[in-house]
Amino acid sequence: MLMIKDLIKSAGLKATPQRIAIYESMRKLGHACADMVVEDLREKYPTLTVATIYNVLESFVEAGILVKRFSLNHKMYFDVNTYEHAHCYDTVHNHFIDIDDPELMKLITDYISSKEIENFEIEGIDIHITGKQK
């Protein structure tokens, strides 16, 4: 596994201490919104704002080292796992759980790829199962 500094540099970004800290926080949290990262880094980086963290997270998405996850609480969540996988989304706690099932992903990708959707170009498949934890 690449070191965080090397991962950020290989994505074409400058590996500043703040970027490294934000990515470390995302690795720890897995799926998080900017507010969650602020809370996680508050003690070590008290001057980091939600806006700054959100902008860094967006730059990580553009560089391909994070993926956006849409939630029902109107907050943008980010995911450190950029490979194809599905999610269960807890609508009560606004929490994502990864479903690592390559067979499921292949089945759905093959099915969708065999269909032609009029006036629509598929850029990716994001499986998002909603519910609540028992």
**Average pLDDT metric:** 93
Sheet with the most strands: spatial strand order: 1-3-2
By DSSP (H or I, 4+ residues per run), the number of helices equals 5
Major β-sheet profile? 3 strands, antiparallel
- The poorly predicted ranges are none
Note the beta-strand portion: 15-25%
Shape: globular
| DSSP strand count | 6
Classification by helices and strands: alpha+beta
Helical amount among residues, as a percent range? Answer: 40-55%
Task: Give the radius of gyration.
Answer: 16 Å
Q: What letter string, H or E per element, gives the SSE order?
A: HHEHHEEEEHE
What is the first-to-last residue Cα distance?
34 Å
Quick summary of this structure?
The chain has 134 residues and is an alpha+beta fold. Helices cover 40% and strands 18% of the residues. The strands form 2 sheets. A 3-stranded antiparallel sheet has the order 1-3-2. A 3-stranded mixed sheet has the order 5-4-6, with no helix packed on it.
